[in-house]
Amino acid sequence: MAVKIDIANPSGRALISGRWLAVLGIALLAVFPLAVRDSYWIHLMILSMMWAALATSWNLLCGYAGIFNMGQQAFFGLGAYVSALLAMNVGVSPWLGIWIGGAAAAAVSLVIAVPTLRLRAAPYVAIATLGFAEVSRIVAQNLVDVTRGEMGLNGIPGMPAITLGGLTINFYARPPYYYLMLILFVVILLVVYKLIHSPFGMALKSIRESPDAAASLGVNIVRFKIVVFAISAAMAGVVGAFYAHYIQVLTPSSVLALPLMVEIIAITLIGGLGTIIGPVIGAFVLTIGLEYLRFLGDYRMLLYGLVLVPLIMFTPEGLVKRVLPKRLTS
Amino acid sequence: MIIQLIEQILNGLVLGSIYALVASGLSLIWGSMKMLNFAHGELYMLGGFATYYAMTLLGLPWWLAIPLAMALVLLVGFGIEKLTIEPLLRRPGWDYTPIIATLGLSIFLQNAALLVFGERFKNLPYFIEGSGTYFGIRMAYQRLLILVVSVAVIVLFAQFLQRSKLGMALRAVAQDRDAATLQGIDVRGTYMWTFGISGALAALASAMVAPIFAINPWMGGTLLIKAFVVCVVGGLGDLRGAILGGILLGTAESLAVVLLSSEWKDVVSFAILIIVLWVRPSGFFGTKEW
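Predict the joint structure of the above. Result:
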């Protein structure tokens, strides 16, 4: 993955080359299924893009807005469950359900955002969002009539065929899912990129750097935070809904529990917090890297824990930022 | 029904005193270091295993095994603070770096415990067998013991913070780190003690409930989130808040078991959290609006 958008580098040249590299990266991703026809590799790439999109939505909060959300998995899981249940019980098409899942996640995020984002200290936000995510997991586990609890939802319908310009696309194999995920992935990255380079993003940055100064300049801190929280939740919800219709099995402990949050944090930290490219590289490295570490089996979480501590101690800005810029600038 | 309710309230007090022990350590750390310790639950878990092995392998009686476990966890706390927290002090992003570092540690310790101790739940016999009936209300001696020991330790702990030299240093650092340094207080050493002592309190809590709840590698996880909720409800950084919050949450959960069902009791405590955040974000005793 050679995509590189170094937003931390203010010089124009780096930005232009970053843009070209981004285009190159997307082009490479677009031809990947044609070049590599191995279905397993396509699956790995879908997962990588999915985690990259999810981690990007979290990075928008933690890396840019300074909101330490510990419950992003709740919005991912909510989007997944809403879209899956709508498709299974009401017969809503997943093409619509994906967006309803995102909207539902955004709506529910307000319940937690409105009371907690008034508080400034990161720990309050962390505890409240963590507690909220635990509630959603417990609810999903206990509402056995609706969600089948820990037995999980099976047989979630996949994406139905669509006809675009006379061409019918069937979602029987992985490549169509690949391109759908690629579109979602690029759109989410673009939205985050545009967002942080807009006046809105500047306001967010000023809030993170100095909340008092921002408030004195007339930035409505709380409203900005709530809006960005809802946007992030919507993104996580849409990605979650995609997950539901792609994997087609959901259990509370796989999509609503803390290990997923840990994975998001690990991905973002490996790549670099507060950079566009960070979560993308982190996701590809971790998803594909872990395939080669399959033999570790149950030790996977042990490894996560072991990696997180030195990462935050020695390179909180991420491995990528450490290694890449030197090569790129020279 | 009335008897059953009173029994549940008493059980709630027992549970609440455990929450209070665990939460006061977290609150102490927040008070002086302004950080959340996500590995606190694993110190609790290690305390349980240490007590278990001290009693089964070494054959010690409970009143010797528990202090030994507390001392052991105190040392582990020292080590964690020295190796992972202290280097972070010099770096930017203090509001989230310790969260991630201790979260990583927590996952590591949990999985390491799974490897070393195995996934079989471990049980200890009641420290004191039997139960008494007072005014028609039955209560196991073990639960009474938990209540007595926790209350005694919390009172001692408050006295220690109030009167001892180290306790005063802890409070001074909590109030103003720079001013404390100017007064010649060893801030780093104080941080180390803060971490160690809070771990020892968690170890005590864990040991006391070991005969009631089984010891297992995951026991710290759920408890930690509860203890955080207790801290916020009571007011982060305030010892009285941790105690009152613990009792409130313990009682509410015990009542929820009778009035609703045991599956929904956890939702009750989180609902209390959300309500407190809406109505009074600083908690019962938190003076500062964060």
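Residues 39-65 of chain A form the longest helix (27 residues).
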